[in-house]
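Q: I'm building a small set of examples for a reading group on sequence design. Run inverse folding on the following structure and report the sequence directly after it, with nothing in between.
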């Protein structure tokens, strides 16, 4: 299979133009002061017409016994590697491994400040030298008419890439962050290494504030967890394209758990847009979730709606991010606009090290479904 991107739908949040620079989370929460931890972020809860403000540590009191959190166990890769095309320096962002052993990559220019800026893709046939003596040969764009991500043939072979990333890679970093962080800062408490070295090019960041202690408290209060896997590719930091097809897996035990919770009147709450994409890709029209694995090109929109997910815990997204369509599908347009207005007025922090937003539809506010 050769994944390709679809159209670029987006939803503009009313009143949200460009995210103010001062609202970008530049460092992880645990680095913002002595004695702070990962869970020292804020939690905005949008529940129908109601918007409330919490510390993330209060999540166990916001949820209720019988709720199910669907979590993505994909580990984050050190997916950025320095390279050269001729004498020119580039940074290679490794995104996705294809079924034929090629890798989808994005080439970016170093900006001299430790991060990168967008670069024109291609051309076909260009060779990129990377550490360890390997070469990437760009063959074709990932999608017809696209130019950001290209399929690259790796010499000596695509299976060599995980070792390259372990030895020479670093986490992908964007300009709104203050400095480089160790790979451990980009791993969630749910991350499990894959036997074949697969993982996510960028962190499934909605789960970042969870700690082992918080998970234990949630379990003790009757909240359950269902693991799924979705390996995220490189996002479009500038163009806000919809997500490309990505590898996912919904295990049989997790599918059964989702179905049992739904049948028993509990709420299924996805931790992150990646978890929504995985479980909704496994859901048939009546909402029953079946075990499956492979590629998904699903883009959740208000027109498509959600079938198995009742709520979503996620970060705060850019005003033209396609993920906002997913939030609207879960919460409705009025609740989404109201929540983002509250986030701006409350000076919540954006991006992967920022605050989080729990969106629930109005009909989920009371007991039962």
């Amino acid at each position: 299979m050769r994944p390709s991107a679809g159209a670029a739908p987006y939803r503009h949040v009313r009143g949200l133009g460009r995210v103010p620079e001062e609202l970008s989370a530049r460092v992880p929460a645990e680095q913002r002061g002595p004695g702070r931890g990962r869970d020292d972020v804020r939690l905005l809860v949008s529940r129908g017409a109601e918007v409330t403000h919490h510390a993330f540590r209060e999540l166990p009191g916001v949820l209720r016994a019988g709720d199910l959190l669907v979590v993505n166990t994909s580990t984050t890769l050190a997916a950025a590697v320095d390279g050269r095309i001729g004498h020119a320096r580039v940074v290679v962002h490794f995104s996705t491994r294809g079924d034929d052993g090629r890798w989808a990559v994005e080439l970016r220019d170093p900006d001299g400040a430790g991060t990168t800026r967008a670069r024109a893709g291609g051309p076909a046939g260009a060779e990129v030298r990377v550490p360890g003596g390997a070469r990437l040969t760009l063959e074709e764009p990932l999608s017809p008419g696209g130019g950001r991500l290209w399929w690259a043939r790796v010499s000596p072979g695509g299976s060599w890439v995980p070792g390259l990333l372990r030895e020479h890679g670093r986490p992908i970093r964007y300009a709104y962050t203050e400095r480089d962080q160790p790979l451990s800062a980009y791993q969630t408490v749910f991350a499990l290494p894959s036997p074949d070295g697969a993982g996510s090019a960028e962190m499934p960041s909605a789960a970042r504030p969870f700690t082992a202690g918080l998970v234990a408290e949630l379990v003790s209060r009757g909240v359950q967890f269902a693991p799924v896997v979705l390996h995220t590719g490189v996002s479009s930091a500038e163009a806000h394209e919809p997500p490309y097809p990505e590898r996912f897996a919904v295990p049989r035990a997790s599918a059964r758990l989702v179905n049992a919770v739904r049948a028993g009147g509990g709420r299924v709450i996805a931790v992150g847009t990646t978890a929504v994409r995985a479980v909704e890709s496994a859901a048939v029209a009546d909402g029953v979730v079946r075990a499956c694995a492979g590629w998904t090109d699903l883009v959740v929109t208000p027109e498509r709606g959600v079938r198995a997910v009742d709520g979503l815990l996620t970060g705060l997204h850019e005003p033209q991010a396609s993920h906002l369509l997913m939030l609207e599908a879960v919460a409705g347009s009025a609740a989404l606009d109201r929540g983002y207005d509250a986030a701006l007025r409350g000076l919540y922090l954006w991006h992967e090290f920022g605050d989080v937003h729990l969106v629930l539809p109005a009909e989920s506010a009371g007991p039962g479904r």
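Confidence is low (pLDDT under 50) at residues 4-11, 364-369.
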